[in-house]
Amino acid sequence: MREKMTKIKHFNPMALREKYGIGTKSNDSNSSFWMDDTYGRRTSIFDGWDDEDVEVKKPAVDTIALAAYRRSVANFVNIVTGRNDIPVTFNDGNDSYTDGKKVVISSNVKDKNFDSIVGLALHEGSHIKLSDFDFLKELANGYVINKEVILKAGKKGYSEHEVTVHLKNLLNYVEDRRIDYFIFKNSPGYKGYYHSMYKTYFHSNIIDKAIKSDEYTSNDWDSYLFRLLNLTNKNRMLNVLPDLDKIYDIVFVKNHPSTLKDTKDAYKVALEVYNVILDNLDDGIEETDEYGEVSTKPASEGGEESTESGDGSGGDGEPKTLSDEEFEGLKDAMSSGDVSRGHSNGSDIQLTEAQKKQLDRAFEKQKDFVDGKTKKTKLAKKYAGELKSIEESGMRLTEVGGKGFGDYDYRTGEYGKGKTNCVVIDRITDSLVDNNLCEALRERYYRNDDMVSTIAEGMRLGTMLGKKLKVRNESRDTKWTRKDSGRIDKRLIAELGFGNDRVFSSVFTDSYADAHLHISIDASGSMSGDKWTNTIKATVAICKAASMIQGLTVDVSVRYTSYSRSNYRRSDSERPAILMAYDSRKNKMSHIKKYWKSLGVSGTTPEGLCYQAIMDKISEGSKDKESYFLNFSDGMPMFSNSDLSYYNEQAVRHTKNQVKDIRAKGVKVISYYIGSEYDSDRYMGDFKKMYGKDASFIETNQLVPLAKSLNKMFTENC
Question: Which residues of 225-261 are buried (b: 16+ CB within 10 A; e: fewer)?
Fold first, then answer.
């Protein structure tokens, strides 16, 4: 058999993890650019906290990030399975599972554990694609279990129900190997996510340590199950239980996952493994109750505790209790070849009582994982509603920033990464307002009446402007006669007899090309008051006028600062944000009347960062159209959080580059600085650096007449 093992390529996920693994913290993630330093102290779900009595305060759920994670995970599942009908949803616990119809993942997803959750989602999604759930139901109901096996297990003290559970666990383990091999073979680019899943759900410090100890080395079901579930661990020892090496050969050599065609094949392997285990278990102990009923229970549950260990246990002297540091050193020595991997050395390791309790919890979690006993807790109603709202509004996170924006952190002695996530909201919905998910779009009862009148005045002014702009709807024909080609001019036919052959005419039609205008509004806190109401009034007027003109479309974005509720420190949760408040190609003017009364200011001025986030949207209107970008702003770009510092010359230069990119896409840029004469003298130099010659200063009371000046811009060129 050993010769056979050397000739046949094993499927060993752990070995693949070692070969293709990511390594240290700096690069141990397929999504390492998302990683943060705030993740807990556990390396695995099976590793407990340093102090189990310490209550860990659960932060609020960042539903915006959660929605982004869900979309990413769903995309992974769709790509790998080749199906787009497998929904990915959340539960409120720490577990993930599939019911054969959908993949449910934990809402406790962070950058740090994203890879393992992706791996688990791929794993569960692949089950939907490849596993026979009807057969699994038949097994759960005991329909496919051979009666001889039930009788054999009965002699060992196990009931028919317990046999079903045992076989289900074994089948799930073998089926997992089959499913995972399918992904490894057909989608090798996703191996890293699986390695992360194995590391999180099957490899931990306490499991590693237990495998090298005498724990779970008795001839009982739990010992065999523990050793079986951890056969992919690099610390495995195949001589601690009778025929454990035989079981390894059955699962990974004789029945290599590549040879298993379906769930029924996997069950045959599980049944073979179960028979080997039963052959090595002690016969059960018969007991008679007070009514004379005779029953049999497993030997491990009867009489005095056995003091015997598994094969190779013992050693001279008292077993040695190793600290975590000592054990890590032992593992390093083993990996370097300085220490034998034989059980006689490993038996010197003894777990403390606290470590044994930790191990028991870890093993229970492993069994639950394999058995599918996950806590199917629904996501809190509040968060479920927010997630639905986020999906409906198209809210997402887009990375912005770049080199040179990382602020120096005196706590760590390092510079921030210089990049951050910008919140982009594609559309306004009722639920977006109801759930207060947009800081720039909230019910502001104390001034909503003022905004209603502002919008109404903008509509009135826009109607007047639209009448002037109606010239764009008109065309002008010019007829050119006595041409060499074209249509024959009937009036000139008589001249053909007099040697004149230029009797043709052509009609040239002058018309206005289609045009698109993107209006970007600064919604920072300093824009409050008259600045805001006049800006909204002018913008509404432009939108109303455009609605009256053929071939002239307008969309409006509002840029502001958003705050994540997942972090208690405001500075760490701050994000640049931009709301697509109106699009004449999709919305009617009633959209403005309904929602803009709730528009308001919030935060700082993440100018160029917001342009960067929606660059594609700004430029999409330039295709086969005259395209314009109109900016309203009252200050210099500024923004900061724990990842990025966006101030002064760096922010000015970044915004300038974004404006340059907008122009490069064929968009004409017009920018107005809103403020006082004092502000004009103070900031116009930097403002012109960003927006060039088209930048100009404008008083707040000039914003309404500004709309009229656009009439000239839109009508000067045919």
Answer: bbbbbbbbbbbbbbebbbbbebbbbbbbbbbbbeebe
